[in-house]
Design goal:
two-stranded antiparallel sheet, 44% helix, 160 residues, two-stranded antiparallel ribbon, elongated, 4 strands, alpha+beta, 5 helices, 3 domains
Length: 160
């Protein structure tokens, strides 16, 4: 959904004709994949998946080519780079999962539920929600039934 909105904005702002849409799709995907996200702890999806620094969107438009005289890499170098990359991945994913876990625990701490302080023989009202397109989650938009007498008091629910 976000990709579609960014894509529409890009097409309208840059006044790109509709028949040139296929050429613009990879650029929008590239920008979104290399942009930092708050949900990933300020990292981009590319950083999380590949442990590389995010590239500039201009590198998609003007790609840089490797020099033709690149030397071959030995198997030992590849193995050592793989091991260091694997350790870096583990640390990176540990920090991302820790930040996500902290965010979830913080949101769980904000939501607190209090159990009713009821005893046997108390009278209570029971509410049934009335659907209304105007107001949601209002105490006035329910049908109150009762009173009912509590006969058994449990820890979580009381029997009426």
């Amino acid at each position: 959904k976000i990709t579609q909105e960014v894509f529409r904005l890009l097409l309208s702002d840059m006044q790109i004709p509709q028949d040139h849409r296929p050429q613009a799709i990879p650029l929008v995907q590239f920008v979104l994949n290399h942009s930092p996200r708050p949900s990933l702890g300020g990292l981009s999806p590319t950083q999380v998946l590949t442990n590389t620094t995010p590239e500039s969107p201009l590198s998609e438009i003007l790609p840089s080519y490797l020099p033709s005289n690149a030397s071959p890499i030995s198997a030992a170098t590849i193995l050592s780079r793989h091991d260091t990359l694997q350790v870096a991945f583990q640390e990176l994913h540990k920090t991302v999962s820790a930040s996500r876990r902290d965010k979830l625990s913080k949101s769980r701490r904000r939501i607190t539920a209090k159990f009713p302080n009821l005893i046997v023989c108390d009278f209570v009202l029971w509410a049934r929600r009335q659907d209304s397109p105007r107001v949601k989650d209002s105490k006035l938009m329910v049908l109150w039934l009762g009173p009912y007498r509590i006969t058994v008091n449990g820890t979580m629910l009381s029997s009426i």
